[in-house]
Amino acid sequence: MLVQVLVQLAVVVTLMTLAGIALFVGRYRLRETRVEWKDRVRAATPITVVLAVVLLGNSVARQIVPDLSWMIDWNPTWEIYDLEGQFILWLQSFETPVLTAYFSFIYIYGYVFLLVFPVVAYFALSNTRPLRELLTAYTLNYTLGLLLYIFVIAYGPRNLLPEVQALMYDTYPQYQHLTRQVNRNTNVFPSLHTSLAATVGILAYRTRDVYPWWNLVAGVLAISVAISTIYLGIHWAIDVLAGIVLAYVCVELSRVFVGRWSLSERVALQRWLPSIRRQ
Amino acid sequence: MSKREPVSNDTTGGRGYSRRAMLAGSAGLTVATSGCVRQVRTVVNRDDVEQLSLTITTLPADGDRESIQLAREVAAVLEAAGIDVSIEMRSNEEFLRAVLINHDFDLCVGQHPGGTDPDFLYEALHSLYADESGWQNPFGFANLRVDDLLEEQRRTDGDDREAAVEELLEEVVREQPFVPICVPEEHRMVRTDRFDGWEDGHPATRLGYLGLEPSEGTDRLRAVHVDARPSQNINPLTAEYRDHDPFVDLLYDSLATERDGDLEPWLAESWAYEDGVLEVQLREGCRFHDDEPLDADDVEFTYELLRDTELEEGESPSPPPQYRGPAGIVEDVERRDDHELELEVDAGEAVAERALTVPILPEHIWDDRATPATVPGVRVAGGTTEAVTTDNVPPIGSGPFRFGSRTERAHLTLERYDDHFTLRNDVDLPGPTVGELRIQIDPRSTSAIELVSTDSADVTSSILETYVLDDIEEADDTAMLESPSWTFYHLGFNARRAPFGNPRFRRAVAGLIDKAWLAEDVFHGYAEPTATPVADEWTPDDLVWDGEDPVTPFLGGDGDLDVDAAREAFEDAGFRYDGETLRVRR
Question: Which residue range or ranges hold the Solute-binding protein family domain (chain B) (predicted)?
Answer without folding.
Answer: 263-580
